[in-house]
Amino acid sequence: MTKPILTVDRLTKVYDGGFTALDAVSLEIAEGEILALLGPNGAGKTTLISTICGIVQPTSGTVSVGGHDTQSEYRAARSLIGLVPQEINLEPFEKVINTVRFSRGLFGKPRNDAYLEKILRQLSLWDKKDDAIRTLSGGMKRRVLIAKALSHEPRVLFLDEPTAGVDVELRRDMWEIVRTLSDSGVTIILTTHYIEEAEAMADRVGVINNGRILLVEEKADLMARMGQKELRIDLAEPITTLPEGLRGRDLELEDGGARLVYRYDTRAERTGIVRLLTALQAEGLVVSDVETKQSSLEEIFVGLVKEGDAA
């Protein structure tokens, strides 16, 4: 990995009531990287971003951005960060261009209309620059949030659930925007619970649950891990043991012998399903129902937590 632009070291956040939102989180993110942080609701994704951005005060641990400590060198560190929050909170009667100009000014940057025009064109907002925010669609408002976050020329951009509650078409538009920003040299960290979002955009994927980073892996490695699927075969008559012709396969008996469960890799060249069904027929087993089941992220997270607890 190239030199990290963001380093998180044993970051912990414990609230007054004793709730641990972040539990000794450590993370390094390389310059120009796209990292997708996956986790179920309440896993700690937003708290992590908020703490890195200085919105939430950590209980312990350190964060540095571009070599600047976010506590002792807050202004220098924060000037390198752009944040796109989940909530759309914009002044409804203000024009798009003025909203973005104001955000740039908040960071003490001199006026640069050429740069702002570049951003607005990049986000397909230039023709809306003189429109009031209230007249824009939800998708366009999200683009304005990104323009605001980029207005002061940050090197690191946080996108907190950027496609939550948006339709599939807009979600794919957002993916294109993220790729374009990455190509221009911006380091991007996005939180999501959509596995396809991580698959579409990320270089690496991190998994967080219960305030802990469970893993950070290259996308291809994690996608292979999550490519497992189950074929559930209900039998007309239960069996007590697997017949000889079915042994040696990744099969398990469940539900008192009335169900066979076969696990396979969806990305494999051959899944072995056809051969399995042929073998069932050869053994004289009558199938009453068949269904497939993909492990959800929630289930994978629970499994990872159990592995961690057992270690």
TrEMBL record:
GO terms for molecular function: ATP binding; ATP hydrolysis activity. Pfam families: ABC_tran (PF00005). Residues 6-235 form the ABC transporter domain. Keywords: ATP-binding, Nucleotide-binding, Transport. Signal peptide: none annotated. It comes from the Bacteria. This is ABC transporter ATP-binding protein. The lineage of its organism: Bacteria, Pseudomonadati, Pseudomonadota, Alphaproteobacteria, Rhodobacterales.
